[in-house]
Amino acid sequence: MNKWLLIAAVAVVILGIVLIFAPGKVSDADGRTEVRIGYFPNMLHAQALVGRAQGAFEKSLAPNATVKMVPFNAGPSVIEAMFANELDIAYVGPNPTINGYVKSKGEALSIIAGAASGGAVLVVRNDSGIAQPSDFAGKRVASPQLGNTQDVALRAWLMQNNLTIGAGEGQVEVIPTANPDILTLFKKNEIDAAWVPEPWGARLVQEGGGKIYLDERTLWPEGKFVTANVIVRKEFMREHPDIVRKFLVSHVELTQWINAHPDEAKTLMNAQIEDLTSKALPISVLDEAFARCEITYDPISSSLATSAQSAYGLGFLGDAEPNLTGIYNLAPLNEVLKARGLGEVR
Predict the structure, then answer these.
(1) CATH homologous superfamily for 120-223?
(2) What's the pLDDT tens digit per position in 153-204?
(3) Considering the entire predicted model, what is its pTM?
(4) I want to staple 299 with a disulfide (CB 3.0 to 4.6 A). Which of 61, 62, 114, 115 is the partner?
(5) How many whole angstroms separate alpha carbon 251 and alpha carbon 333?
């Protein structure tokens, strides 16, 4: 073979390998696009859990795409995976989303739908002596992770109540800790309170002997605030708008099904939680946790702006006030809703 033909042939092979294995352009041997979907094994990502149980995303995206469900435990890790082109679509809380959008100067991701409202509580130990905000002075309070949605909500609430965060005398020590470890510390009386998402709030009450001090819904207009959104990597959206739309069809259908069949949905979610964490939740925990959540496709954009201001005020978003213009791309969702005779979201 002519050496130039050989070089050209090798170049074609190398290019093919690059196209198949380059981050963000994952394909299988048949050329189908692999859609990598991030989510958490908790109640606020109900569509992901039920969708995984029912194979809903695979059915919706077939035959041109396959699905890989990727579990996470905290939002900042999801954003890191998006930055590394290891995820295409993800269920994640608002504050990690805002942080990712700001850090990437709006280039990395877009919010394409809501997923959940509510489902976050401040739980105190019964023997903590906490009866009013001033009683938190000198206490140790946990949140799931530094800068995550509940961590920002906790810090903002403490500041609004004239409490100082720190480890000194009379200050509130905020301890970012993984949710399972929060429960352990709570049981050992090593923390006094925790601001957590469900089902961890219900678990702290039922397994840790705690009590609800504050249901975060009481802090928001009409009790609605976003606790989980659906985001997409912008590059993936540009390359595969048809796949994103099919995903959104499935997301909306799952939302409607969960709200119409709550008992069946809880059973499916619990089976998924057991599969992912090796432990199912007691029915009483599921019932209590689910009662404080609203599963929705509405992103409740007004609450996102408030969360962004809180995060900025706490120093999580740098020195410049965050500009969230363009963080939403709701046109595909509204097309899906219109086609189903449902009202559009703003």
Answers:
(1) Periplasmic binding protein-like II (3.40.190.10)
(2) 999 999 999 999 999 999 999 999 998 999 999 999 999 999 999 999 999 9
(3) 0.85
(4) 114
(5) 9
